[in-house]
Amino acid sequence: MRKVVEIEELYGREFNVYVQNSAKMYWNNRYKFSCMETGKPTDMLLFLSSSAGVYELPDGSTVYAPRKSFVYAPKGIKYNFRCTEADEDTYSNVIVNFILTDMDGTEISLCDGIMVMEDLPTARFEKMFLDIAYVSGQNVRFPCGLRSCLYKILAELCSHYHTKNILTGKFQVISKGIIYLEENEELDKSVRDIAAMCNVSEIYFRKLFKEYSGLTPVQFKLNKKIERARQYLVYEGKSVRETAEALGFSEVAYFCRIFKEKTGITPGESRE
Hints:
Distance between the termini: 41 Å
CATH class of the largest domain: Mainly Beta
CATH topology of the largest domain: Jelly Rolls
Largest sheet: 5 strands, antiparallel
């Protein structure tokens, strides 16, 4: 059974993708497509670079997708598509057919209907769609390359809507603090300082941030520091002491204790 996970929710989740294919598409003003009888066999992402069209659903409702928009359709959905505008002789629409699953293998949908996205940075996403179409069009099938391209597209989508949700939703008032905690590597400000950045009290910031992330600001900072510590130890060859000092831990012993609590191994074992 498939479950719906909204795009911004994917930001903090692990998931797998399986790409069936991707291709550049040429549609003229007479182009039509129907999956009304059988339903869409896979999930679909579509970039309408040179065309626009209308999706007609079984209940009689319609969804319009303008030029330069991005469309998502979940597996199983039924619709008729009719192209309403097209640039003749232009093969620049790009389609990606894929399956998205949770880590336990459960299939995921990003919504249960046709979703048209018009607020994305077009140039950046267009390049990513062209990249995956190029990889798919090679003579030798390259599944790893296709998955890498689609992960990049989905990561950008997650990041875009995650940030948009912060800046426009319930957590807008503490958005500066959230962005600081998520994107700043130093994390040298106290919770009181971060709350002051947002012009709210420390108590109110802690309350809202816990609602947002499920963690207190201190827990969130510690998790980020331990994640960064693993990079220092494993990939950058720093010693345990150098890592502790770089991350602002006053005592190496305290750093080692926190590291083991979070990861189940000591910093030294991580290096090995």
